UniProtKB/TrEMBL annotation:
One annotated Gene Ontology cellular component of this protein: periplasmic space
Signal peptide: none
The protein's name: Do family serine endopeptidase
An individual GO BP term: proteolysis
Pfam families: PDZ_2, PDZ_6, Trypsin_2
UniProt entry keywords in alphabetical sequence: Hydrolase, Membrane, Periplasm, Protease, Repeat, Serine protease, Signal, Transmembrane, Transmembrane helix
Claim: Hydrolase is one of the keywords in the record: yes
Positions with a binding annotation for substrate: H152, D182, G256, N257, S258
Lineage: superkingdom: Bacteria
Taxonomic source organism: Psychrobacter raelei
InterPro entries found in the cross-reference section: Chloro_Bact_Ser_Proteases (IPR051201), PDZ (IPR001478), PDZ_6 (IPR041489), PDZ_sf (IPR036034), Pept_S1C_Do (IPR011782), Peptidase_S1_PA (IPR009003), Peptidase_S1C (IPR001940)
Main location, first listed in the record: periplasm
Amino acid sequence: MKNTPNRPKTIVSALKTTYLSQSLQKSQQKLKAFGAGSVLALSGFGIGSLGLTAGTALLATSATIPTAAQAAVVASDFSDLVEQVSPGVARVNVVTKVSEEELAKAQTVELLRQFFGDRIRIPGAQTAPAIEYNYGTGFFVTSDGYLLTNHHVIAGADKITVTLNDRTELDATLVGSDERSDVAVLKVKAQPGKSYPALPTGDSNAVKVGEPVLAIGSPFGFDYSASAGIVSAKSRNFSRDISVPFIQSDVALNPGNSGGPLFNRNGQVIGINSRIFSGTGGYMGLSFSIPINEAMDIYQQLKQTGTVSRAYLGIFPQDIDRNLAEAYGLSKPQGALLIKVTPKSPAEAAGLKAGDIITHYNGKMILESSDLLNIINRSKPGESFKADVLRQGKKIAVIGKLSAAPDDVAPDAVVTKSNNSQIRLGLRIQALPRESLAQLDGEGVLVTEVDPTGIAARAGIRAGDVITNLHQKSIKSIDDFQRALRQLPEAGVVTIEVVRQGIPAIIGLRLD
């Protein structure tokens, strides 16, 4: 009976253990029912209500199954990945010789400053060294020495070298470069018995907004710097000179990161870091990378022929805002509005006209003009296309074939989105000057003054614009404009076509 005095304690301990076990199970069930953001709050609640110790509370929390959000946080640990892929990343060193004219100008400025000091001001004068040194980043895509980087990294280079992560420096030759996509291909000599660490590429079309990504480069010359973030958007188009649907991320990129790889969590390259959106020249939260699918297509063409052949349709599309959607009878702003069709182009041959709205292209819905341009830019010359078009309220199908973009014709480009704020009428016009009539085929009237409180100003019309069409009526003279003005409805939205600095646009005017 020695153990008799201990029996009550044993029973109490067993009951307490059973109670705690049941309570922990209930807590775990509650934790599973809530998101990861509620875990800490529930853990605190459990400690206070059950009278558990801190150690027991930690045990209860660790016993729960990690949520998807917690798993994503764990997956964003890129330490092993950085170690694995770094050998395939290289620093690109560029040497550019300054021209004799620039050097003489710089020396002249320096001599004048020796006599007059810093008080002298010479318009356009810059002091420049005889040789400029720049740098960027590149990465291997084949084991025999082919690398990818940016066109703007090596543009104008007289000598290019690459520095590997073991500090080996190799001479590199430029295989080819494409300014419109900002992709360049370099080659270093293959070394006997040695292969270069080529990086695996992924599928940039499969990239999802929100997934973690990693960048490695040489920002401000700090080699092999890693930065991580998430994909914040896809298919970004913000330049008429760049034909790339950029991957947008919040990865910190700075000067020197250009040309470096953007990795997914599996260590696959999904993009080439190209540029940042900044008002200061430094990182401000928006970075843009060239999708690797597009980059590899450019790489293959540059490697095989040294040039890039692009598909050409011959259109100038713009987005549709709320006013235009109402004017064209659309239920919502959707589609690509053609404001111009280039003469003798595949678009004209297929029957497309200015004022058409392309709603589907090869079976894919077109929400914005950038959707259409991204598809065309990924197409090949000679490919057939089918477009679903809305023309004057009727749906029609247009079939045609793309051609190769001629060198002397501007590529298909996004026109600035029209202003969608409410508007009020008020402007002054005059006949076009004689020298402008020939350039515009004798059509249009010149806007000389815009009332800042009127319909035109609210729509974004400016002095200097040329009005060529109002409410589906061609404008060739002031009389045409006044006649069209008298026929405007009392309320609703009508269209007005203008030419600004040589670029046409269609704007919706709200009259109520």
